[in-house]
Amino acid sequence: MRLRYKTNLTSGCFSLILGGLVWFFTPRQIEPDYTATYGITSRTMPYLLAAVLAACGLVLVIQSLIFKKENYKEIEVRQELKALGYMLVLIGYAVLFSVNFIFALFFLGAATLAFMKTRKKLYYLIVLVFAVGLYFVFILALHVRLP
What we know:
This protein is mainly alpha-helical. The chain is built from five helices and two strands; from the N terminus they run βααβααα.
């Protein structure tokens, strides 16, 4: 199945939403700088980025809706579902990382090999050996505490 969308309208809406999110979360993530006696603080650049993102998004939406300057793109839904599946694998890796480093690393490597449709068992064994080896390098050589 193919999905057709307007590029300017989609990009503009995405930019407006992203700019709004950056503007909203900046005060919650960056503490106010009380030592600055001039106008530029640690929040200035994120606010500037949010404003530029929102302004560019607004220009794209206006071009799309008022001036009818639009390009259409088509995407293959099946191919994008594979990408969404791999994003879920990365989220699973992030969740498993807090539980067990070796298992999370092996899960990510095995899932990547499965997405590439690799059938050789040797490659999966290599990923497992690499995960265990990397664990011991972090623990013994670098003295990093891992779950």
